[in-house]
Amino acid sequence: MWPDFSDKDQLRLSDSLTLGLFKQKTGWQDIALTSLRGLRQSGGGCSIGQLSLVVAQVLLCILAGDPHGCKKYWEHAAQAFQNDDLDLVRWSASNWPLTDLMKHLSRAMPAVDIAPACKQAEGDVDWPLAYRLSQDLADEDLSNVVWRMASKMSVTMESLMESKCRTGAQMVLMLKLAFCMDMSPICVKSQSYALETMMRKASLTGEELKIWMAEAAAWNLLDVNDMSVKKYVRHRYNLGLSVQELQKLGVLGDDRLSGCVLPSFPHPHGDEKYFLLDLEPGISAVALNRCRALCGQVSRSFRSYGALPKTQKGALRGIPCVCSPANGWVRNCTAAEVPLFPMPSLAERPSGNLEVLDQASVLVPHLDAKVPVFVTMVFGKMTRHIEPFSKRIRSLEIPNVVVFALDEAAEDACRSSGVLFVRGTEKTALQKYVIVLVFLELGFDVFWFDFDSVWLKNPLPALEQAIASERAGAVAEGRPEAFVFSAIDFDSKNCGMNAFFFLRQSQGPASSWLLALLDWIYKRPFVHDQLAFTLFLGTTPLLDEEPLPAPPPWAPLDPNLFANAFRFEGLGFSSEVDDLVLFHFFDGWNSNSPEGVEQWATSTYRGMSLFDVLYENQDAARQAMARSKLPAPKSLKDCAERDDFGNGITVISTRLEVMS
Predict the structure, then answer these.
(1) Which pLDDT band, with edges at 50, 70 and 90, does 353 fall under?
(2) Which CATH superfamily is domain 356-626 in?
(3) Whole-model pTM?
(4) Residue 574: Cβ-neighbour burial (10 angstroms; 0-12, 13-18, 19+)
């Protein structure tokens, strides 16, 4: 996690530097220096924070009017550029104002002419044409011409790294990197590495860094970064949680124990209670998860939980779970003792600006511990649909529905409609996983659904049927029971999607799996979370060399009950509209990139406002949903079997040779 440099701090520093740069107001230095002190205090141990600090020092020195006295700061900056993080993707996603500072610095540099090598064509690259685009980034026609030129087979990463027009080459590499971020994430790392290598070569000394910065200013490289790389960043490095919450949720390490107990199963020593977990397939790996859920359901007076070693005493065969009122903090337990772990805090707290986990804890007394929590998130234009949504869930008597309200309007709408809600701040796809993780941590099974869905029936009977069917299949096949249930494409066996999914913390390590998924997405702010979700289900090829955890045991949700609108090929349903439980209709948020939706969508619902249709008129709603009814597919795709690597390479034939 990057240390947080708040939006307020960033705006304050950026504004003060802008005032100084354009000489609009006196006193800017005092404001900037105050902000810089905040940078210095919070930047320790964070490479992007350190880079922000040294760049700001150079900038302040230049703006103070003593360019000859800035040599030492240029040298400090060059040293930082050699030792620290030069990844433009991370720069663009960071809360630190590094790219803004670099932009201010480029504007403060004296004007220079572009290099002679950039004034003529080089192979298939017309550098004067690329330079024209850098001076007028709003010219779409020129942008298309330059992109077609940059896309030629001869314009390779290697040729650009060796180009004599190095700043122009960096611009083209930025355009290629942006394309990878948008369309082909598998090539992001190589393009990022090329840019990083070129920046590092250009900053061997303070004087060389100064020359490169002037060239970058001539080519408006930082503005190019904004319209290319930064444009395709889907989320910033901010989960909208405090450090304490990150520790409680397991995102940041917190190895504290809440107590120790000498095992005395089946007879407790004091106020603790023992329960025996059945030895079902795979139970050993999830004993702590199930124990925590059980202790939370039995009594809110239990503050700690722990799992003992497997026991076989006559008819007592299983894993003992101990629930305890212990609520202290200990460093370690003896070899004879069983460590106890803290239950999530469920104490009532005063209203006000509460943290996300605290707010969710306050809701626990209003929730039925025996059924899942159904969570979604709302902000912006969708807020006006909270009222009809609330009427629908009440009419269907769906329990435990909680909205993650991500702006003030959504919060107000939830209050006025009587909907249970948790207030959040960030507005990215990460929040989907954050709120699910919070309720998993509180001991609930959790069903996520995108808000651009309409409930048609109470989902509990359908979920119970899905669980029973999966349990029977697991027993018959001698495998662990699924703890992930996912939406799938209508024409597939197992092509998962994340518009709605069901995680059973009571059955498996759902929190651990979701944490790994959240961490993977967080580190790759350009990847669509749908792609990441299917990657972690084991049905998408790896995007880079980082190993992944083994796919979880998972099962599909019946697409003829939990349906997706025929907005894209492969979706729809073949059942009757009256059979549907949930209908997801894709309102276009698209993991924070709505502009990419209509390009691939079918014409089935083009021009229709499905929110209004599906909530306001029952007959019109039935007719609209019936548009997605299709003939049952004759065969189903198997996304676990592929003939390509997801990077344009297709397997034509294979040969196996056994060497003696």
Answers:
(1) very low
(2) Spore Coat Polysaccharide Biosynthesis Protein SpsA; Chain A (3.90.550.10)
(3) 0.79
(4) middle
